[in-house]
Request: fold
Amino acid sequence: MPLTLLQAVILGIVQGATEFIPVSSSAHLIVIPWLFGWNDPALTSLPFDVALHLGTLVAVLAFFASDWVKLARAWAGSIKERKIGGDPDRLLAWLVLIGTLPGAAAGVLAESKVEQLFHQPGTPIQPAAMLVVAAVIAGLGGVLLLSDRLARHVQNLGQLRLKEACIIGLAQALAVFPGVSRSGSTITAGLALGLKRDAAAKFSFLLSAPIIAGASLKSLSEVAAGLPGGSVARGDLILFAAGVVAAAASGYACIRFMMTYLRQHRVDVFVYYRWGLALLIASLALVAITSQR
Reply:
């Protein structure tokens, strides 16, 4: 258990660190156990994977606490008065809600099928699948670079409109595929639409909260349902708790870093990281394929 607990903490730190940096948390949670041979069923299970998102949910709720209070009041006011008017907070609250819908639909309709391809509990991931992940990581890195370089980033968050929010929401739906990255896809879309870099990041983080909350509730219900029948061991719950705490701490730190960094810097460093990671994964996967012959 101590070694497995350490692995849970490491995966929690990785989840928090990569959820809000556009380098794909899902890919890292697949690649790291694959590289080090961590095949404990609890750590490779979907409930643990999504439980880590509970930690990142805590991070995004805590960091933007004042924004959430303001948006909740604005949304309630728009419902009560049945109008948005010229209130930017009311508009943003509705844009976050509407922008969440494509990602929620993709999660309900496609997530389980994608997980069957990439995330079978206790089963080593096939090298061919890792080649696909590497290709997605590299390709989306190129799209991120083009969005950053070709668009003019002059638009503030208050200038965001419904059509743009829907496009960013559709981009978030692509995050069901490992290697895409929820923050990567939404920040890329925001940059391509002309948002300032920090504005694109903030809307990305706000947009992620409802999706992460829904996924976390789903995971918690699965854990609760598994306890009576023994499909989830009570001893594994400490692994879940350790991962959540680690993800919350590293996630909060990464949000703070991103909001500061993107005010003055381009996204090049994240693109280069994605390309380097893709090259590493592809190289190791090809070695594994060759050794199997």
User: Anything to note?
Assistant: The chain has a mean pLDDT of 86. DSSP finds eleven helices and no strands in the chain.
